[in-house]
Amino acid sequence: MLFAILSRIHSLFLLLVLTFLGATVIGAAKTGFVPDHSRYDAAGFNNKQGGSRFIVSVFRNPQGKRVLLLDNATTDPVLASTVPREIVDRLSKSLASKGITVTRSYGIPLNKIDGQFDAAVLIYPCDNYVNVDFDKLAAKLDAKALFDYCASWSSTKADAAGLMHMNFARTYWPHWLDPEMHEFVEYMQKTTATADGILLVPSEPLSTTAARARWFLPLNYRLAPRRFYLYKPEDGTSFLTEYFQWVKDYSATRPQQGQRRMKSHPRALSKLTNMNTARTLNDEELQVAESRDVQWILFWRHQADFKICDFELVDIETVRGWK
Amino acid sequence: MLHLLNALLFIAVSVCIGRAMLPAQNVVARSRGEEFAVAYTLGLAAIVVLCNLVFVVGLQLSVAVGLSLALSSYALYYQSKRKSAFATSPFSGAITWLLLSVGLLSLIATIAYPINEFDAIYHWAYRGKVLLFNGTPLNEALTGIVSNDNFGRVVTHPNYPLGVPIIEAYSSYFSGWSDRWVQLPLGLWAACMPWLVAFGLRNLSSNAIRWAAVATAATPILYVTNFTENGFADLLSAGTSSSMMLGGGSDLAVMCMLALSAALFLRATHSNCKRLAIAAGVALAATAAMKNEGLALLGVCMIACVVALFLENRPTRTIGFFAASAIICVSPWLGIRAQIPAIDENYSEQLTLENVIHFAGGGNELIEKSPLAMSWRQETDEADIPTRRSLVSAAFVDEFFDMRSWGLLWVLAAISIGLVFMNLDSFNYRWLTLVVCGGVLLYFLILLVTPWNFPSLRDKGIPERLLVHLVGPIMLLVGHALSSVERKLSR
Q1: CA-CA distance, B491 to B481, in Å (whole number)?
Q2: Could you tell me the pTM of the whole model?
Q3: Given A8, A16, A24, which is nearest B109 (Cβ)?
Q4: Cα B37 from chain centroid (whole Å)
Q5: Which residue in chain B is spatially nearest to A31 when comparing CA positions?
Q6: ipTM of the prediction
Q7: Which domains are present in chain A?
Q8: Where in chain B are the domains?
Q9: What is the average pLDDT score of chain A?
């Protein structure tokens, strides 16, 4: 008897099931049945000290540099991803202690802020700041550096204005929904043939073990049946433990050692010539390109955030010509 | 539109082939709903086995598609020759509509987004694309991950089975790939489950059938795990996190194939029907073709058959056909697997007596080499590393009492297992009990010897993603227990 009652009680979990299914369908409908960043937790800046080191490290001599903090006034509504005021205060003090002049915007629109700066930091993701005219912003910034603490600026738009965009907020949407990655996939679809082989070559030592930095996974999936070749993929594509070791091992082999950076090579998408990832190939890489019938080399910088300036696709004949 | 039609074509071909594989209604009665669910999943299992066979002999997907289209045409003709009436449904009108509504909603939830999960994209859909574009898994895209010069093709876990990729490749064969519509055939796993359970229990009381089927549909883990754990936030983000079981993954596929196999086998032993026993073997082979764990489950089912033979009522002839069919049908996949590098998931190497004794005897958990910050866990104190067995045991106990994911399923399972002593004369009861207990023990042993850091696996939804494979046999066992209790009460 008790057993029969328990089975009937179990059946009541249908309510939970129906709630989940209903919420799933309604949630999907709200974004037009296409997954969207808005369905995930808002990005957040997790460094409680303010992360001044990220900014300081960009300048050879930070003394006398001018940084614009695009933050909110105390009366402004707090939006999702806004960096908390106490962290901004800490950042401001820390930058000042290193001799950097800090200007806080307190929600004032950019066109009403006078003066010239070296870099800008996005603290408050209001429409005014997020959809800023990047050309006008670039004209205000001598060092052309953008620090995004809200993951809200478009790195492609910033790049088009010659600005180096660096995101330091943690994002919670999955990496395959990265809009810049989608743009790069479209470019590669147009540029390469489906039967082509593409060798992935890092331009510099791999600097992060973040799982999101494995951009070769979504590129390989989206661009199938193009053939992507990677150094020891059995470790690089495996579980995080193996991937972590792969990052260390690959960096230790120093494939870029003795190779020439080809900063003068015209960039296909990015305007940031200084950030060009193209380089000459070492003998092992040249041999692999030969033996695998590779038509393209995809030079990349191993970063958690996808930026078009970190990728450069060059045909094999051009790369061979550099040697 | 073409993508949708192609996916529907796959479903239609599966149903046609599956229907023809089933015996006539006068041999094995079934309702319209049971017929569709069993025919679809059985036909799908047959197509997966056929594709593996075609690949292993060096032919391409196009040959398998052509053969299956021809087979389904013949199946249609064959079916038209043996028309017979459907049996009465065990469900009332209200329950039928309820089950249909839940099934339809789960289908819509599956295709509401294009494939949107890590495993579903990189482990399964990528293979689907390889099959679609290259025509065979025995291609550099899967075999070329390792080489002497250190460079190879980008692919995750190359020796993962091809069941789901075959379904996806077939569903896009004529239309081209679509991240949304290749999921359509996969959206029917949860919808089919109650009807498969009802089919397997048809010889029992109608009350037992009804409640077991409704309880199956009401088991939350068929759709999602830990829903409402984060309160209202889970409602807002429903369908986006990796806790969603629906979608392009393979765990529900294993669950559904095992449920089908068990249901067919139970009916086969009851009606002494060799055709059903062979079909059950095909479904069990398809279980192994969905995930590597399916192969181990095949072993559990076989061992359960042997052990269950020790007492009275021994359907040896049926078991013979079941085992032979399963072994023959799984061999093409094993032939393919032998040609694909096993880089990081080789349980047959891990599950050694030495490893089991080490960890069961109190061997410590392995230290995670990757930065723990990535998984938001506390640093491990190396002087105080817990034993693996304690971590795995705690995880299993957690799952058994996690009502958000399981409802009362494990309570019902425990009572049903306890009732085996009142039903020792029933081969089916003994067999189901052994399959459920064996399955749980198998996954405990696998996790006991896993070469990975167990807390990291726990973060990724292990062991619940493994235990969900057993929902079919558990619900069939619960149905048997309900029926036996009812019988005892009516005496």
Answers
A1: 16
A2: 0.94
A3: A24
A4: 14
A5: B113
A6: 0.94
A7: 52-167 (3.40.50.720), 175-322 (no CATH)
A8: 2-82+92-340
A9: 94
